[in-house]
Design goal:
CATH architecture of the largest domain in chain A: Orthogonal Bundle
CATH class of the largest domain in chain B: Alpha Beta
Largest sheet of chain A: none
Strand content of chain A: under 5%
Radius of gyration of chain A: 24 Å
Oligomer: heterodimer
Structural class of chain A: mainly alpha
Number of helices of chain A: 12
Order of helices and strands of chain A: HHHHHHHHHHHH
CATH class of the largest domain in chain A: Mainly Alpha
Helix content of chain B: 25-40%
Number of helices of chain B: 8
Mean pLDDT of chain B: 86
CATH topology of the largest domain in chain A: MetI-like fold
Mean pLDDT of chain A: 86
Structural class of chain B: alpha/beta
């Protein structure tokens, strides 16, 4: 709620039968409006202050005070210097091709696994939510498999799949599949039964009900699920790459640990954070563009 | 706009019993009612007496445990566009615009297309005062607008019967009286066979051709009052002798049932008895 709104006024019933405030339509309209407001507020300065404070504390603990717990941690300054150095000591910086090979391969694995998890999880979840018979079949199996931690799958994944590449993608897929499935299922469950009744009254066939009610109605939950699932995908990917990889950011972290190239660990970790945020931002943006009807009341 | 599209909807010996954990609960029993073509029938009764169950049966959302439903002499089962419901809470599809919501029925049944569909929808939107809001989503409309859009979505299908389950509940008093005028105007222009459930006696009497008083659970028809007041109806009829006599009679009947409901420990019945005692 904005600072200028009077609480008493916003809570009053609409005596005038007037429409609610109409927010700017379209993804860029809303993003743009939000961004310029954000720039004018105190938020960016506080964000910056927090970040600088965090880096100073890190430098202080690891390099100035040399606190035992932090003494092996590379300081932020040497990490940044290494990260942006044209001639990096340990061979990884924004100027080396290897850096982008690791990012590219990890992203490709996540993309493939995420695509598979979405392609299987969304239809399966929607069907389970829509048709009780279907969920009766599938529910026990899923409830048995879902709680198994992804790491418990590692030996099987290596045994079952030919080559490391497919086992890593499989592990990544597993991480993201269940989140997608469950949220798609919940999405259908969240649809008001009145919509199904209304559609049936108006003469909609089963396939039309799926296309026009189940699919759009579950969409908000599906996209929430996809954002969660892409996070799980990155999580599982790193575990998979540490155990079985020859390339990729997870492998790079583990390899740098073994080779005592500590600044590279930090570089790879920050990079993971950045690509992870970017992937969930992309999904959110696609979701917002598709779910234009879900308008926030205060714009 | 066509006039005289209404069908004759009949409930014959309709009964509904729910099997609950606490045992069977008879909600509707031996319910006989005929809705004459192009008339507006208002149903009133104690709260929790099974009026919503009646709507669900007539709409075909639930199967009766006894009796049958006939539309123009033909037996009907299951939901269909010949008997449309306007719900208590809005059931507009939130992912469709006002225009798309209203166009939904004829479009999916492929009855109207292109310019024809557009013209029909726009005519109806104009009639309910929503033509400027054709491209807004339901979340961008006020409560009153949502109900009007919902009325339009039902009426575009020219249903033989329209079933309205307390459609104006939850609206503030001013919006409610505006909506009643919109609805009355719409009915008097387009006709059709309407069943309107309400808990407001003045609303019911202002709208009705006949007022059906329903007994406490199990619901059955207690009495049908003919409301022979001239149309188009205006606010002023509420001061007429005939209206006041009808109101007094209806109040007495409703009060009797409310007392029974109260004695039977019915839900909200204490409020109900209090409210009617205050009115009478």
């Amino acid at each position: 709620m904005s600072d200028t709104a009077l609480p008493g006024l916003t809570a009053a019933p609409s005596l005038t039968d007037a429409p609610k405030a109409l927010p700017p339509s379209g993804l860029w309209g809303r993003l743009g409006g939000g961004f310029s407001r954000w720039l004018k507020s105190s938020s960016p300065w506080l964000n910056l202050l927090g970040l600088v404070g965090f880096l100073l504390l890190w430098q202080l603990l690891s390099r100035v005070l040399k606190v035992p717990l932090f003494v092996k941690l590379p300081g932020p300054w040497e990490t940044v210097v290494e990260w942006f150095s044209p001639r990096p000591v340990y061979g990884i910086s924004v100027f080396t091709i290897e850096y982008y090979q690791h990012i590219g391969l990890s992203s490709l694995r996540v993309f493939l696994a995420f695509l598979l998890a979405t392609g299987l999880g969304v239809p399966l979840g929607l069907l389970m939510g829509w048709k009780k018979t279907f969920s009766d079949y599938a529910f026990p199996i899923l409830e048995l498999l879902r709680p198994i931690p992804m790491l418990a799958w590692v030996p099987l994944a290596i045994l079952m799949w030919p080559g490391r590449e497919s086992s890593i993608v499989f592990l990544t897929f597993l991480g993201s599949f269940f989140a997608t499935l469950l949220n798609s299922w919940l999405g259908v469950k969240s649809i008001d039964p009145a919509y199904f009744r209304a559609a049936a009254s108006l003469g909609a066939s089963e396939s039309l009900i799926f296309k026009k009610i189940v699919w759009p109605g579950a969409m908000p939950f599906v996209f929430t699920g996809l954002q969660i699932s892409v996070g799980y995908a990155w999580f599982s990917l790193v575990a998979g790459e540490m155990l079985a990889g020859e390339f990729g950011l997870g492998y790079l972290i583990w390899d740098s640990y073994i080779l005592v190239q500590y600044p590279v660990i930090i570089i790879a970790m920050i990079t993971l954070g950045l690509v992870g945020s970017l992937s969930s931002f992309i999904i959110r943006a696609i979701g917002n563009a598709l779910i234009r009807w879900k308008v926030k009341e205060n714009g | 706009m066509s006039v005289g599209i209404g069908g004759r909807l009949e409930a014959r010996n309709l009964a509904k019993t729910y099997e609950l954990k606490s045992g069977p609960r008879e909600v509707i029993s031996d319910f006989n009612l005929t809705l004459e073509p192009d008339t507006l029938t208002v149903v009133m009764g104690p709260s929790g007496c099974g009026k919503s169950a009646l709507i669900n049966l007539l709409a075909g959302y639930e199967d009766p445990t006894g009796g049958e439903i006939y539309l123009d002499g033909k037996r009907v089962q299951g939901p269909g566009p010949d008997r449309l419901v306007v719900f208590q809470e809005t059931a507009l599809f939130p992912w469709l615009t006002t225009f798309e919501n209203v166009a939904y029925g004829p479009k999916i049944r492929k009855e109207l297309k292109g310019a024809n569909l557009e013209r029909t929808v726009l005519d109806l939107l104009k009639l309910v005062g929503l033509e400027e809001f054709r491209d807004k989503y339901p979340s961008q409309l006020s409560g009153g607008m949502q109900r009007r859009a919902e009325l339009a979505r039902a009426l575009i299908n020219q249903p033989q019967a329209t079933l309205l389950d307390e459609p104006f509940r939850g609206l503030d008093a001013l919006t409610r009286s505006l909506m009643r005028d919109y609805y009355l105007d719409l009915f008097e222009k387009r006709k059709g066979t309407h069943l309107f459930v309400t808990a407001e006696l003045d609303e019911g009497l202002t709208l009705a051709d006949s007022l059906v008083i329903v007994t406490n659970r199990p619901a059955t028809v207690k009495k049908i009052l003919k409301v022979d007041l001239p149309r188009p109806r205006v606010e002023a009829i509420r001061a007429e002798k005939e209206y006041l006599a009808l109101k007094a009679e209806a109040l007495e009947l409703l009060h009797e049932e409310a007392i029974k409901s109260f004695k039977a420990g019915g839900l909200n019945s204490a409020d109900f008895v209090g409210a009617y005692a205050a009115l009478a």
